[in-house]
Amino acid sequence: MNLSTQAPILLVEDSNEDMELIKWALKKLSISVPVVRCTDGGEALDYLYQREEFSKPELAPRPALILLDLHLVAVDGIEVLQEIKHNEELCMIPVIIWTTSSDPHDIEVSFQQGANSYILKPMSVERLLSVIDMLNRYWFGFAVLPEHDLGPS
User: Fold this and answer.
1) Strands of the sheet with 117-120, listed across from one edge
2) Phi first, then psi: what are they for 35, rounded to 5°?
3) What angle do CA 124, 29, 148 make, to 5 degrees?
4) Is the pTM above the cut of 0.90?
5) Which residue numbers in the chain have pLDDT < 70?
6) Which of 99, 105, 122, 144 would you call most buried, defined as having the most Cβ atoms within 10 angstroms of its Cβ?
7) Domain spans, the chain
8) Top CATH class, 9-142
């Protein structure tokens, strides 16, 4: 698929360091899936609803997959997850929780609210490469994702 038409991964991540590590891992693994980053939950919702700075559809193509940190400023990850999974236009986008929290309550609530997976952020470079490779191979190699246009209907 051409990069300009391939639906991106939406990464909702407030840590610049974590973002740089993910970009490095993608490059190291020669993964060319486009990644769009939102730094907080409010910005992610603006992106998904194509509001504010994302009001032009070409600035906010519908993501194929969302990697969502839980602990965000203002609108937290659980609130974003609830909004996505309770919206008819967004609910079919797979959402993977991408967090440092191993709190059983966070895990339970995430799945109750419709998370498709829950991954603890890797704490080593080797593990990061392994997890990013696995995500890419599974979600963009084996999984069959629902077809959708690249913007809201």
Assistant:
1) 35-38, 9-12, 65-68, 95-99, 117-120
2) -125, 130
3) 110
4) no
5) 1-5, 148-153
6) 99
7) 9-142
8) alpha beta
